[in-house]
């Protein structure tokens, strides 16, 4: 990594509230400092019971800001938030988010949140019952409505023997979400208050217990779409088909395997979504018969033909059956030739609002970190997206979606 001057370093405020997951914020802090960010840690008094001030200072290379009444001449309760490019609170407890939602300012961190005019990210961590309580959910909705990015907590082991939703997302995932928010900049939480449904990966249609019909989709583009939507303030549900990628922070991941499983999950989730993006590569066919035992090779005999049956057309079904008013549906088309012609025909056939058409094969799209595409609109528009990281295509797609949401 090249050296950066203090003036060019993004200024990040890392707020730490009083939860057992505070120790994980040390790893998040290291991610920021090692990538050239200038970080000021603002722990609450409760957080200091879990991780001491000396640890924050050593890892950040800067004094931790702990008291409103320290360095009063610098007016820290105002200046820290005013000068920040990003404020991220990790972990964000139920108490901290309640204070933020109601504009309370009884310590340095809550004062900082009130004075910040930059993007703000909350990474919640608490017990499942606390996260699901109506008061917490209302506070989260309020923060999101105001433009803050509130990530969905992860599911896993909590304090003691408890397990459930409420675990702090992985520090790497939080860092990735924050990087996307920094790219978007202030005032760009344009999906706040929206629920989006994204599918990713490729379905696998079992032939026998060890074989399947599948495709080469890695799920990277769908995951980039989910991560970008979360960074832009959306609540995101991700249907993940056979993907070996860590779940993006702030995203509810639902694993699926086959086209039928994907259809069932999509039909169940779609009525609550403002936007449906079907980025998964869904198998058009599946074996007509599933062999319960491994199909054996018989010497001197040719294998029996594999009969196929059609899978349901999930994209067309979701486009035709929109129970939510104003819902937008986005599809993907992977083509090897006559890309735009096939794409336009598919757009008309599927009935979706946008279709992202890209050329695949010979190292293009599948399994790579880059992509290029043309976003076709049902209104006749064509938006080419030049080669670049899949994150850039994801943001280009969301730009088109936001313009149509109104």
TrEMBL record:
Keywords: Decarboxylase, Flavoprotein, FMN, Ligase, Lyase, Magnesium, Metal-binding, Multifunctional enzyme. It catalyses: N-[(R)-4-phosphopantothenoyl]-L-cysteine + H(+) = (R)-4'-phosphopantetheine + CO2; (R)-4'-phosphopantothenate + L-cysteine + CTP = N-[(R)-4-phosphopantothenoyl]-L-cysteine + CMP + diphosphate + H(+). The keyword Membrane does not apply. The keyword Ribosomal protein does not apply. One of its GO terms (biological process) is coenzyme A biosynthetic process. Binds 1 FMN per subunit. One of its GO terms (cellular component) is phosphopantothenoylcysteine decarboxylase complex. Pathway: Cofactor biosynthesis; coenzyme A biosynthesis; CoA from (R)-pantothenate: step 2/5; Cofactor biosynthesis; coenzyme A biosynthesis; CoA from (R)-pantothenate: step 3/5. Residues 196-406 are annotated as: Phosphopantothenate--cysteine ligase. CTP binds at residues 284, 294, 312-315, 332, 346, 350. InterPro entries: CoaB-like_sf, CoaBC, DNA/pantothenate-metab_flavo_C, Flavin_trans-like, Flavoprotein. Pfam families: DFP, Flavoprotein. In the C-terminal section; belongs to the PPC synthetase family. In the N-terminal section; belongs to the HFCD (homo-oligomeric flavin containing Cys decarboxylase) superfamily. This is Coenzyme A biosynthesis bifunctional protein CoaBC. It comes from Kitasatospora acidiphila. The lineage of its organism: Bacteria, Bacillati, Actinomycetota, Actinomycetes, Kitasatosporales. The gene is coaBC.
